[in-house]
Amino acid sequence: MSAESPGQKQGFKSKFSNALRPKKSRQVLRKGSRSTTEVPLPPGPDLNKPLPDPAPLQAHRLKYKQMHSQVDTQLGERRDYTTMIHSLGLLDPMDNSGPVEEDNENREPGEGDIAKLPRRLWAYIAWFLSPADAASLSLASITLYRRLGFNYFMVLDHPANYDYKMDFLAGIDRDLPRHLLCFPCGRYHRRTQEGTERLKPSHVINPLFNCPNAQNMLNPPPRHRITHGRTLPFSFVQLAMRAHRFGPHYGISVDSLARRWQRDDWSHSSRYLVHDGRLLMRVTSQTFAPAGLPPSSQRLLLHSREDYWPFFSACAHWRDGELMPACKCALNHIPKARDNGGLQAVEHKVKDRWAGRQHDPNALTTLCGFCRPMRRCPECPSEYLIEVKLTEDRSDPRNLQFRQAIVVTRWTDLGDGTTPNTIEWGAVNGQRDDYDSFQHYEKRAIASIFEAAFTADALPGQRIISMNPKQKKQGEKGHDWY
């Protein structure tokens, strides 16, 4: 019987040799050798049998790939919207590369293409434009000027097209840094105080250029009344916005417009900010107010005797609405001083002890629901906040004391400073009636925008209501304004 037979008992030597014998799977294939065993192949899939439904996640992936990986039949590109959105997010926001580059020096000039079109066609195109746009088109190149001619500039010189002329002249500010546009004359004048222009009171003669209409009262330059005796000429708005858009040598900085002044027992401070291409202004006015003023004394405290305007900053619509009644209501909340002589002092102490309170003559004044909310003028971008604060009186250095003072703060939007025809400047000065402040500033207040630019702490939450909720426009015929 051989050693391989199962009936033979194996010894130690045979077990050791079998352990060292290489396995069949480790045998090296040799040329010409064949496998002695045939492994049966598994049966192939049944093509007639339907495939099982994929998993929900796999089904969503297949559907998304089918929807967003289609090939555009016109351009031959794959419309993968996810890749397009991600590529837009990765682009540099300052990247100006595109199908047409404005500053491409290697681009072929288009004068030949412009010259191919006849003059009648260019005149027909300019007929659909405004006079200012047609003149700008004629000034774009020498070829267009030869096609359109000088007639569109003559049309701008007509008195009926004064607004179009100002719009056209405002568009060439970048080319004239040493000049300033004069609106009464309708032309540019050379700046006489280049780089040193300073805002001064209204009674101080402060010409920025030599203008023949400087003393013409029938054609005054545009300006905005800030407070009594203080105005903001539109020329300074131009200078501030030109310096912001083009560079410091085009005008003056915005911070140079800020001022502090006192007049008629009122102290004022103004500050300016450029936000989103527009000039914002904040004016804070305050004065000490005694308690228990009668109505006649309240009018003397709030209004000027010269023009019957408020001493604090106000827009052209201050007579309509509840601005002045709210100021008078705030004055009525100033606590009165107690008479501490005789039996009245004992009576007050007994009442305070019985009510469980302690009288503090310097306590903070709390306003009511009528005068506390912030007011917004519905016809112009102006907001008002009325407060009564305990302020230190420094008029007498030897006897410093705290007194109650009424503080009126106004925030307003003065426009982009290009021309006085802008909707913000016209609405603030009462020259336009097509402005809706609650539509333009429906998401964020002007005061919040202004204060957030200078301080990390925002204003306390204020409820903003309309200054004229009943939409009554009586002007001087009304009785509540005085």
Automatic annotation (TrEMBL):
Residues 40-55 have a biased composition (Pro residues). Residues 1-56, 92-112 are annotated as: Disordered. Residues 21-33 have a biased composition (Basic residues). This is Uncharacterized protein.
